[in-house]
Design brief:
- The protein is α/β, with parallel strands linked by helices.
- It has a single domain, classed as 2-Layer Sandwich (Transcription Regulator spoIIAA).
- Helices cover 52% and strands 15% of the residues.
- The protein is built from five helices and five strands; from the N terminus they run E-E-H-E-H-E-H-E-H-H.
- Helix 1 packs parallel to helix 2.
Length: 134
């Protein structure tokens, strides 16, 4: 587990490829200790996860729950296609914004709501054009 950031900063957590139950509890306890008194902005780096199972999804949801208790947010980065499919099949993908890289996820915390809305609109337009071209 790699954790970067300081109190009052954005925190980037790298989720290891495998986490046993005890390691998941330690991961969550460490995260919670870093969030005290903060409005946490968390990026979960999922680049080491080729696939995910229910226990990893529960860990992600626990991280989100702890962040929301403190008026914060969690974003996912580097999610492999198989892992993304699992998130989608369980409905968990609706709870997280998913980004290709840590840098994109971090950048998203600093964009204004108007900028995000414009970028989403542009993305929707691009997706529609691709569908019509296919």
């Amino acid at each position: 587990m790699t954790m970067t950031g300081k109190p009052n900063d954005l925190i980037v957590l790298s989720i290891p490829g495998t986490l046993k139950s005890r390691q998941q509890r330690t991961f969550l306890r460490t995260l919670v200790s870093r969030m005290r008194g903060l409005r946490p902005r968390l990026v979960l780096d999922c680049s080491r996860l080729d696939a995910i199972d229910g226990s990893v999804i529960r860990l992600m949801l626990s991280c989100l729950e702890e962040a929301l208790k403190r008026n914060g947010d969690v974003k996912l980065a580097g999610v492999a296609p198989t892992a993304k499919a699992m998130l989608e099949s369980t409905g968990a993908s609706r709870l997280f914004r998913i980004f290709a890289s840590n840098a994109d996820a971090i950048r998203s915390f600093f964009q204004s709501a108007a900028e995000r809305a414009l970028l989403e609109e542009v993305q929707i337009d691009e997706d529609e054009r691709r569908q019509h071209a296919a």
